[in-house]
């Protein structure tokens, strides 16, 4: 199979998928949810093969947690599909209706991006989420998952694609790439692929960005922070930090650095350290933090570190302003949180931290399309153009302008024979 040839066919066919009705796309999603539930034993059997290979290859426990596709994850993706079905159709929505002159009317209407290539880490649930979002938004999708879950991905894709065709959606609206060599071939399809969304390690995402002319949406790092302010609530702070670090350590929205106001550090840091150590978290930190609780001492530049592991950086700061400065310097503009009961400090933090997600008194782990009510997400973008934060349906659509006239020509307006009288309808 040539990815280039298939991508070209997909580009030509993409208007057919864009022309389907919301009802037709929802019917396809309902079929996917039903088929996944009906064929769960086959899915779990293939996932068991992947997990056995992971054991043989000495894959870490953090990575294996991503690879595992059990009843809980199946229930979550099916719930996400039903949530997507309940959302309004994002296509053909009129966002501008303007009369330029008599019998000359302009409309801005939402439409799919077209052909999207998504290269994602070894997470079977990601394949279901991405496929579902692309179907709902009317986008053709080229999917390349991690080799560690090849067996699970293969059966999931087959179930999804068969359901899509059974619902009457266009043949060829989805494609699964399996070999690593196909990635470079995909990166060269700049005439036919409209957008790439890479999900994976910093090194991998940077490789994608540096080796294609196709627009890329995503993020390379997930260096997330929590700042514990002087006016904090200890009953909130410790559970929030524990959740942000340990609930899913390998996630890009797990906290990597905790900043603590210097005035509360002597009392708070030992309590926090005790709970983190119970959870198996190893601490690294600034010299003054290590003077309160024994931990590895870090240099200033070491704070630009994403662990994706049970390791946490700790730094003492003198003010909310210093915390903001540190985050904007060392953070990845992903998700950062403040724990405070001080309204003024909270407002300053929420305004001045330059990240896609800025939270108060809650875990950074909420940075997720499903938890935002998007149904799912194709990834998280730390950029500021087109889409930012968890990318759900809104991030997978663009718009076109449709102008309806009755013989008008620009020359009449340039000569002054006619004049525009812009009026919103």
Q: Do you know the CATH architecture of the largest domain? A: 3-Layer(aba) Sandwich
Task: Tell me the domain tally.
Answer: 2
> What is the CATH superfamily classification of the largest domain?
Aldehyde Dehydrogenase, Chain A, domain 1
- The SS-based structural class is alpha/beta
Tell me the total number of β-strands: 17
Poorly predicted segments = none
**Which whole number gives the mean pLDDT?**
92
How widely separated are the two ends? 49 Å
Query: What helical percentage do the residues reach?
Result: 40-55%
CATH class of the largest domain: Alpha Beta
Main sheet specs? 7 strands, parallel
Characterization of the model:
- The protein has 425 residues and is α/β, with parallel strands linked by helices.
- It has 2 domains: 3-220, Aldehyde Dehydrogenase, Chain A, domain 1 (3-Layer(aba) Sandwich), CATH 3.40.605; 224-366, Aldehyde Dehydrogenase, Chain A, domain 2, CATH 3.40.309.10.
- 41% of the residues lie in helices and 20% in strands.
- It contains 15 helices and 17 strands.
- It has helices at 3-18, 22-38, 40-56, 61-67, 71-86, 124-136, 150-166, 181-187, 202-210, 234-246, 265-278, 287-290, 320-330, 343-352, 410-414; strands spanning 94-101, 104-112, 115-119, 140-144, 174-177, 195-198, 224-228, 255-261, 282-285, 296-297, 311-317, 335-339, 357-360, 379-381, 389-391, 397-404, 423-424.
- The strands form 4 sheets. Strands 10-9-11-8-7-12-13 form a 7-stranded parallel beta sheet, sandwiched between helices.
- α3 (40-56) packs antiparallel against α7 (150-166) and α10 (234-246) packs parallel to α11.
- It is globular, with a radius of gyration of 24 Å.
- The model has no long low-confidence stretch (mean pLDDT 92).
């Amino acid at each position: 199979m040539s990815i280039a040839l298939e991508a070209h066919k997909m580009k030509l066919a993409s208007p057919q998928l864009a022309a389907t009705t919301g009802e037709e796309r929802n019917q396809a999603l309902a079929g996917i949810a039903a088929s996944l539930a009906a064929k769960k034993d086959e899915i779990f059997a293939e996932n068991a093969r992947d997990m056995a290979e992971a054991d043989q290859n000495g894959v870490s426990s953090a990575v294996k947690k991503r690879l595992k596709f059990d009843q809980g994850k199946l229930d979550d993706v099916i719930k996400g599909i039903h949530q997507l079905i309940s959302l309004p159709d994002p296509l053909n929505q009129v966002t501008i209706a303007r009369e330029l002159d008599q019998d000359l009317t302009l409309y801005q209407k939402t439409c799919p991006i077209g052909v999207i290539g998504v290269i994602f880490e070894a997470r079977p649930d990601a394949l279901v989420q991405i496929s579902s979002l692309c179907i709902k938004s009317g986008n053709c999708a080229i999917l390349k998952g991690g080799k560690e879950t090849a067996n699970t991905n293969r059966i999931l894709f087959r179930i999804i694609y068969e359901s899509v065709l059974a619902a009457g959606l266009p043949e060829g609206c989805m494609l699964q790439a399996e070999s690593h060599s196909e990635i470079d071939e995909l990166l060269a399809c700049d005439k036919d692929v409209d957008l790439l969304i890479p999900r994976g390690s910093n090194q991998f995402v940077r490789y994608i960005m540096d080796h294609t002319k196709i627009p890329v949406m995503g993020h390379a790092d997930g260096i997330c922070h929590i700042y514990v302010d002087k006016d904090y609530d200890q009953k909130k702070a410790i559970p929030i930090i524990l959740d942000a670090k340990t609930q899913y350590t390998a996630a890009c929205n797990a906290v990597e650095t905790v900043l603590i106001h210097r005035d509360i550090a002597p009392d708070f840091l030992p309590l926090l350290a005790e709970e983190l150590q119970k959870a198996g978290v190893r601490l690294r930190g600034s010299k003054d933090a290590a003077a309160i609780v024994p931990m590895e001492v870090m240099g200033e530049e070491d704070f630009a570190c994403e662990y994706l592991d049970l390791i946490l950086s700790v730094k003492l700061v003198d003010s909310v302003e210093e915390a903001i400065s540190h985050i904007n310097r060392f953070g990845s503009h992903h998700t950062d949180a403040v724990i405070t009961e001080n309204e003024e400090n909270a407002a300053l933090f929420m305004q001045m931290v330059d990240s896609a997600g800025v939270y108060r008194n809650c875990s950074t782990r909420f940075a997720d399309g499903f938890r935002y009510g998007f149904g799912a997400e194709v990834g998280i973008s730390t950029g500021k153009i087109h889409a930012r934060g968890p990318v759900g349906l809104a991030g997978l659509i663009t718009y076109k302008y449709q102008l309806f006239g009755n013989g008008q020509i620009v020359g009449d307006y340039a000569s002054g024979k006619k004049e525009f009288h812009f009026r919103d309808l």
